[in-house]
């Protein structure tokens, strides 16, 4: 609507909007999802700060399945409350959720940034023809991108998703995993030419954040088991001279995260332990998760995704079809033929065109398909397991909305279209609040 379009005109307003949205979301949320929201996060954080709190079986000495890094982060706002003698039951219960709301706002902002990397990268004048073929209008600066109508579509989709309202402010490790995953994607070079001007230091920073997201929740490794090899293959095909440097960065970033997690967990449990291995052994090798229920292999496709995206399914289909159509008719190669990394000995450096080359949009669909397929192989399935994928699906939804908006036949009045869109937006917002809160 007009209000969101006004917000989209400034990055400061966008950031403030997301922060206020998620803080209000956290304060208004009064529904219940499942016990892990409390037992695996705030309860353990309370025990760290105040010395008492119930431990579920996963935290007992004979299992040691959960890492202390996530509860430690949630305990950060509790320490000032204790020291200032402000530790009332209300403040102690709401503080971790408000902290998670800040992470959620950051995730929303980073989702918007990822959307713009794929669909609204700044382009030099020479590439305007390709922009027209790809279905997006050209932008030449960051400000132009923030004021683009597609940004308004993305804001609407993030604001009106009922499951984002329902799950984002909750203190799950899944929600923290999602925020860290998108923080890593902010700096991640998606191909050998990157679709970004990020330096090698940015790539290492992305790897470090990704490693800590895996420490927070080991299943975060699934998405990086796709993106990491995908990037490595693109380096090999492009004959990049930085392949071994990238492999070394992976080892160093993973080693740092494992060392920090090992130290935190050993202090938390008071014994030597490797939580990541304990988690893998019990949940994968011994398949203890099946004790809590199993679902058929198609559950995510037939039930989870339709439920999470039920108001947006037509827009999702439109976005998928448009991406595939553009790729078939005007798309670029998924893997670059030559490397454009800065300083690469085998490449030519970043030209004006390659510097602004966006990642192939099919990559979004491949990530969704890969992670959904891997999760479908596991017996125990839950809606929140695919929550880190939801913002990626919403990116495709927003592109589908833009496709339908721009594809309005000339004989149809834009005023009528806008009226229908405003009515639909109000209906979706009301549905999101009524279902989520």
Describe this entry's structure for a reader.
The chain has 437 residues and is mostly helical. 65% of the residues lie in helices and 0% in strands. The radius of gyration is 22 Å and the shape is globular. It starts with a helix and ends with a helix. The relative contact order is 0.13.
Q: Cα-atom Rg, whole angstroms?
A: 22 Å
**pLDDT averaged over residues:** 82
Task: Tell me the major beta sheet.
Answer: none
Order of helices and strands: HHHHHHHHHHHHHHHHHHHHH
Report the uncertain regions: 125-134, 138-143, 349-353
Distance between the termini: 22 Å
Helix content: 55-70%
Share of β-strand residues: under 5%
Number of strands: 0
**How many H/I helical runs?**
21
Characterize the overall form: globular
- Please state the structural category: mainly alpha
TL;DR of this structure?
The chain has 437 residues and is mostly helical. It has 21 helices and no strands.
Keywords:
437 residues; mainly alpha
Topology, element by element:
Layout: H1 2-7, H2 11-28, H3 36-39, H4 42-50, H5 69-75, H6 78-83, H7 89-119, H8 128-134, H9 142-146, H10 149-160, H11 162-167, H12 173-187, H13 200-216, H14 221-237, H15 243-269, H16 275-285, H17 299-308, H18 313-330, H19 362-377, H20 390-406, H21 414-436
Helix pairs in contact: 2-7, 4-5, 7-10, 7-12, 7-20, 10-20, 12-13, 13-15, 14-19, 18-20
């Amino acid at each position: 609507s007009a209000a969101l379009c006004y917000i989209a005109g400034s990055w400061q307003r966008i950031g403030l909007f997301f922060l206020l949205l998620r803080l209000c979301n956290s304060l208004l949320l009064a529904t219940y999802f499942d016990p892990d929201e409390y037992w695996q996060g705030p309860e353990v954080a309370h025990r760290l700060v105040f010395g008492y709190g119930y431990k579920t079986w996963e935290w007992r000495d004979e299992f040691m399945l959960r890492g202390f890094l996530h509860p430690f982060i949630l305990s950060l706002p509790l320490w000032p409350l204790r020291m200032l003698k402000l530790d009332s039951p209300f403040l102690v219960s709401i503080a971790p959720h408000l902290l998670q709301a800040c992470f959620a706002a950051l995730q929303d902002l980073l989702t918007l940034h990822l959307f713009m990397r794929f669909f609204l990268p700044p382009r030099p004048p020479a590439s305007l023809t390709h922009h027209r073929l790809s279905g997006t209008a050209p932008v030449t600066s960051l400000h132009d991108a923030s004021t683009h109508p597609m940004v308004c579509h993305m804001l609407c989709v993030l604001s009106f998703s009922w499951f984002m309202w329902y799950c984002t402010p909750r203190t799950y490790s899944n929600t923290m995993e999602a925020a860290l995953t998108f923080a890593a994607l902010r700096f991640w070079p998606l191909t050998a030419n990157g679709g970004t001007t990020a330096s090698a230091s940015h790539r290492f920073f992305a790897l470090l954040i990704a490693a800590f997201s895996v420490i927070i929740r080991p299943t975060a490794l699934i998405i990086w088991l796709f993106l990491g090899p995908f990037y490595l293959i693109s380096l090999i095909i492009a004959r990049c001279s930085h392949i071994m440097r990238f492999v070394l960065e992976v080892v160093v970033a993973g080693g740092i995260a494992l060392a920090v997690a090992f130290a935190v967990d050993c202090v938390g449990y008071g014994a030597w332990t490797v939580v990541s291995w304990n988690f893998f052994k019990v949940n994968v090798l011994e398949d203890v998760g099946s004790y809590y229920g199993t679902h058929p292999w198609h559950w995510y496709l037939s039930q989870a995704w339709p439920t999470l995206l039920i108001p947006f399914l037509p827009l999702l289909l439109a976005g998928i079809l448009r991406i595939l159509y553009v790729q078939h008719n005007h798309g670029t190669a998924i893997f670059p033929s030559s490397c454009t990394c800065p300083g690469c000995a085998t490449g030519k450096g970043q030209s004006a065109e390659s510097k602004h080359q966006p990642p192939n949009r099919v990559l979004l669909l491949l990530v969704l398909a890969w992670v959904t397929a891997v999760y479908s192989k596991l017996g125990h399935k839950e809606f929140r397991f695919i929550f880190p994928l939801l913002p990626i699906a919403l990116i495709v939804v927003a592109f589908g909305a833009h496709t339908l908006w721009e594809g309005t036949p000339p004989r149809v009045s834009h005023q009528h279209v806008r009226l229908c869109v405003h009515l639909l937006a109000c209906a979706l917002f009301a549905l999101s609040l009524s279902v989520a809160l």
